[in-house]
Design a protein that fits this description.
This protein folds into 2 domains: about 240 residues, NAD(P)-binding Rossmann-like Domain (Rossmann fold, 3-Layer(aba) Sandwich); about 70 residues, Structural Genomics Hypothetical 15.5 Kd Protein In mrcA-pckA Intergenic Region, Chain A, CATH 3.10.290. About 30% of the residues lie in helices and about 20% in strands. It contains 10 helices and 13 strands. Bound molecules: zinc ion (ZN). Zinc ion binds next to loops.
């Protein structure tokens, strides 16, 4: 291979197949601190297609670590500016961008990915994209940071622990944000636009975590080495890396074997209202405001269980925190 080829040096790596990379699609959600590094690495490595999903716009306080942006970009959509800069870095790759929230992007877009990457700063966001990855059966890499601390998780649907399987999901009170600023963020909820939490962030951590994520995605696409098994915590101040091999749980509501067999049973009391039943489901599955659908119809909260459900009903729980409804069997308790 002549040395003037853009990819000649990486192609020297045993097992590297540039054609496979050229035919692959990566979806990147969040092109802020970590996402900027992931995108730059994947673009310069010659990923075939990069789909960027990011609803945020550029602010001055982003510029200490979001290396794709300049002062002249202030106020512009991150997705659009990042796409333009990445095209300058490597005109050979295809880029598609959505200046939208990930929940507003159709499942058909996620279905086309070889790898989905979520650089998201909230547990709720991670939970949503984890359930979408399971729905479309695509590998997902999650990463986050806080000051000199960072984490990376690689989720291979139905093979490794998903976001719901593992015990790192805090209860709903803590789930608003993966930071001590959660309460502040919670107060802001309900307003039109969610206010960005002011998290301590430095470029060294975004480059390390972004580099890890990009490396894991290249490994998955090229089938090189072993994927991260499956949660890594990094402490930059103490140079400590902890890898926690999380196990799948068979009663996981998102990917568990019992769930697949529709054997998760939830017992309803005949005289309770649908609203009370939904409240118990919300507490059990850590949801915000679930709806219950049986035979294609949403149930009315004020109705009583025994008038709405059969002795055993297959039901779907829908919630804005879930991309994939939870399917369960509701059994009415015999008095
Ligand atoms: Zn799971």
């Amino acid at each position: 291979m002549p040395d003037d080829n853009r990819y000649s040096r990486q192609s020297l790596i045993p097992g590297w197949d540039q054609t496979t990379l050229d035919n692959s699609t990566v979806i990147l959600i969040g092109v802020g601190a970590i996402g900027s590094y992931v995108a730059t690495i994947l673009a310069s490595s010659g990923i075939g297609k990069l789909v960027i999903i990011e609803f945020d716009s550029i602010e001055l306080s982003n510029l200490n670590r979001q290396l794709l942006f300049r002062e002249e970009d202030l106020g512009k959509p991150k997705a659009e500016v990042a796409s333009k800069r990445l095209k300058e870095i490597n005109p050979e790759i295809e880029i598609e961008f959505y200046h939208k929230k990930m929940e507003e992007v159709k499942a058909s877009v996620y279905e086309k990915a070889d790898v989905i990457i979520g650089c998201l700063d909230t547990f709720i966001g991670r939970r949503w994209i984890s359930s979408m990855a399971i729905r479309v059966k695509k590998p997902l890499i999650l990463g986050g940071m806080f000051a000199f601390l960072g984490d990376v998780q690689v989720i291979i649907p139905y093979k490794t622990a998903c976001f719901e399987c593992q015990p790192l999901v805090p209860d709903e009170e803590l789930a608003q944000a993966c930071t001590p600023f959660g309460e502040e963020r919670k107060k802001d909820r309900g307003e039109e636009e969610e206010v960005e939490a002011k998290l301590p962030a430095v470029a060294t951590l975004s480059s390390i975590i972004g580099g890890m994520i990009a490396q894991e995605s290249l490994k998955l696409i090229l089938e090189l080495g072993a994927p991260l098994e499956n949660y890594m915590f990094y402490d930059g101040l103490n140079n400590a890396t902890t890898i926690i091999p999380l196990a799948r749980t068979e009663d996981c509501p998102a990917c568990g074997e019992l769930y697949k067999l529709e054997q998760i049973e939830f017992v309803a009391h005949p005289t309770e209202t649908i609203k009370d039943l939904m409240l118990r489901l919300a507490l059990t599955y850590g949801l915000e405001k679930p709806d219950l659908m049986v035979e294609g119809k949403l149930l009315e909260g004020k109705n009583v269980v025994e008038n709405q459900l059969k002795e055993k009903s297959v039901a779907y729980i829908l919630d804005k925190n879930l991309a994939k409804p939870i399917k369960i069997v509701i059994k009415i308790e015999k008095l």
